[in-house]
Amino acid sequence: MSSSSTYMAGAPYVHPSLFAAHLESFANERHAASTANNTKITYPVSSSSQNSSNNNGPGATASNSSLPSAALDYIVNPFTRINDRTYFRDPDNPYPLPCDLAEIHRQSLRTMTLIRVFGTPFCAPQLENQPSKKVLEIACGSGLWSHACHDYFLERDGSESSQNKNNDNSNNNIERVTASFTGLDIVPIAPNLRRKGVDWNFVRHDMRKSSLPFPSEHFDFVFIKDAGLCQSATAQQVDLLGEPLRVLKRGGILEVWDSDHVFRALLPNPTPPPKLSEKDRNHADNTATYTVSPATPFAAAQNKYLLDYNSWVEKAFEKRKLTPMPCATIGLSFTAEADAFQSVGSRRIAIPLGGEVRWEQTGKRNKLNADQLALRQTALITIIQMIEGMEPILREASGKSRDEWDRWWAAMTTDLLHKNGLANGECLEVGAWWGQKR
User: Which of 30, 131, 199, 357 is the most buried (most CB within 10 A)?
Assistant: First the structure.
């Protein structure tokens, strides 16, 4: 089953050309940067400050003047090749996933999936009526989210302008604001989005450092997605939001999206949270997803291959001091910073994997349409690709030999993709949390 075949035709605000452009730009820039024998990818490094606002692509620079030679070597040559995949080679970096075209493809599919289930590139309602002028995307990866958010702002502003032109009241004119986007990540993977019409800057920065390379109250929207694997669980528990809040202006929005890395099964016919808005309820029905609350019933995964994976990833993450369930900890971080916010909100969603769940087939829910089925298949594809990308640490945790792993992998993919092995309600759990700074 090809991941490209699961593209969600009904997904709003993510244009097919945008996705294709990201993959093409990434492939071209990585090819240009790779060495002749294709065993390492290197990036130029200079002694100029990483705060530079003109860092727009692979030449983005980072400060290195006080680094020991070993640490500097990991910056100059950050990657190594394992099983034809590209990984960080710094042993102190806990990030467990590859940094290559296949992983960028997976992350892009996951970004599109989350935008689809949430409905827009952000969930904070304040942003619908509060234009953002300076946006920071932390752990930006390919920059796909920034590109999608830029397109959403343009589409929204264009629609409002068109509507106002049709009104007789001349006082309804709305000022059109063009937002600037800054992407931050440990390596410059994102293509130069300026070529795509985005006011874009890239800043190279290691999130394990204690401070972000920006002045206080510099941005009015800070967005973080899938950054739970960039820092140890201890660092996140101590101060996940402190620096993002420091660089956020008063009245600005901080929003965090993430997904759990272990999987549970959703029990039959969960009821929607009592305070769920009609808009969110209708969107959940349209996407055939389930809004999660503390009362939502879950059980352990029943699929034997996901049970294997769950046990191995928990063992591997414990060794690297990573959290396998960031959705359980991010909300606590917002609670710990309650005094910094004038208002907070959250949405958690469960996406059943693959196809229809058995209890859906016997209930009153309508049969899945093509878009709903594509959403679930896409979520499953991103999980299978994630397991593939984590092969080195999962093999270590499982103790399997190469032949044993290959047999397990073949049986797992056959079961999940072709034998309806996820009909018991196994799901991808995702979440969004946001707050408006006092």
Answer: 357
Q: Give the β-pairing of 85-88 and 79-82.
A: antiparallel
- Please state, as a whole number, how many other Cβ atoms lie within 10 Å of the Cβ of residue 138: 22
Q: How many independent structural domains does the chain possess?
A: 1
Picking from 369, 354, 340, the residue whose alpha carbon sits closest to that of residue 423 is: 354
CB 148 within 8 A of CB 18: yes
Does pLDDT of 94 surpass 80? yes
Average model confidence (pLDDT) for the chain? 83
For residue 67, the domain's CATH number is: 3.40.50.150
254 SS3 class: strand
Cα-to-chain-centroid distance, residue 181: 17
In this predicted structure, the answer to whether residue 50 has a pLDDT above a threshold of 50 is no
Q: State which residues form the domain around 195.
A: 3-437
Q: Kindly provide the residue ranges of all beta strands, DSSP E only, lying in 271-387, ordered along the sequence.
A: 290-292, 298-300, 341-352
Helix (H) or strand (E) holding 312: helix 304-320
Helix axis angle, 402-418 to 391-398, nearest 10°: 110
